[in-house]
Amino acid sequence: MNATFNLRRLWWLARYHGTGTLKSYGIALGILVLLMIYLSMVGGYKLILGFFPFALCVAGTLVSAGIYRNWSDFGKASSLLMLPASVAEKFSLGLLFGLVFFIPLFTLLYLISAYATLNIFHQSISMKEIWSGPTSIHESMAVYFQPTLLVYLLVQPIALYAAARFRRFQFQILILIVVTLFVVYYYAQHLLMFNLTKLLAFNHTYFVLGDHLSYFTLRNGGSYPVVMISPTLKGLNTGMWLLFATGMYIVAFFRLKEREI
Amino acid sequence: MISINHLDFWYSRRERLFENLSLDLEPGHIYGLLGKNGTGKTTLLKIMSGLSFPKGGEVTMDSWIPSRRNPGFLQEIFFLPEEICLPWVRPDSLVRLFAPFYPGFDATQFERALEMLEVNPEKRLNRLSFGQKKKALIAFALACNTRFLFLDEPTNGLDIPSKAAFRSLLASAFSEERTIILSTHQVRDLQSLIDHVIILSGRTIPFNHSIDHIAKGLSFQRTPIHHEADRVLYSWKTEMGHACILPNDSGEPGLVDIETFFNGALEVPGKITECLKLQTLDV
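^ inputs. structure came back:
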């Protein structure tokens, strides 16, 4: 019973957390469905597709940060920190809800909402087409899924860290960190592209490499050339992101371990 | 046993809260932790519970180091803070959610405590008043049967019948294996329970005495007028006359007025200490 990690205790923690937050999760999912209806009415598949990475990262971050925010509020934190479970189990609670439960549930709900709203407000479209893209393989949920996941795997531990490190304004600080990282990363890419190709170019599609890279250049009146990425390069890129995300999870874990009230 | 050795703690380096504080607490006692506002009563409980970490020195509770927050240690301690936050469930659902974490939890004891404190087990905790919530948590804390039980201002927000019920419940939950610490400003509410007084003042603990020891060394009297001025160690005017502390020349223990002792210990610490030391020498 006194082991560092006990699955039974993790289940008790999950049950405790679920009981207190079920209502909030229900409301959040309701808002998501309403947003999907609106996006479907306004912009159809493209807008829904573009919204997916953003929605997954923001909703996931809110879910994860919400769990660890409890470590900062004295009333909540004292009851959570004093619960007879190890720090590893309490930390895993965030991973369980923020990754294991959230990602499949969110993706499934997103697909169902997209399927329903697109079929109601636009043309008839199958679930398979929604996943693989009705027009172009480069613009599909299947292609967007992995890069989105990689971004989320980086944003989530930063959210965990911010929630554990700061007593107040955790979400605002998190947004500031993520926006700063995004701007620095994006600008570094631009500098690299400019030094290599002498093109005034910006990474267009995404700031994580998928199986292709599209960039925006002012040459030829502003075009979007697409460059396919080799599997080795893609693997290296994915590995780099996962390594960085793992490091951030470790930092967040130790921050939570040393959390004082 | 709780052992605090040379504890240093501060929230801001410029203002130390504890400096070289040492304290040993034996099981089988109900300690009253007293002190003015801001002297660090809650912080000391937090350090002993592992919610805050010492900046210097060490704290051990039996063989556990609280700051490591080992699950085995957390099973043996319950800290009821003044500021409480509970999930939106009914009191009986607390058992389902939290009881599995505490091997010593007794559901019958919990139900009995709820009944004595007149808490409606059918009502959700978020719909209860502050006092009712506190009573539900007090009932839970007592039923966990942990070896260390720390209660921060437990009678705040409790109505008069509940205070009596609380005293009765705490007395019945007490055992020789348990160490109970009550941090409070409401000493009159808990006077009959406390068997050991700890006073926090000036970054350390100047007074740490059992009620027996105080009773043998000091005599507490209430008089309508201020008399025997030369023998009185300390007196203060209450709504019912003067409450005085005098040396207990007979050595026969009488009743201890903890409130007056606390005031006297802070106002004339030298005289009180001297008197209690003499009593120790006599013994």
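Chain B has a mean pLDDT of 90. The first strand of chain B starts at residue 2 and ends at 12.
thumbs up if we can close this ticket
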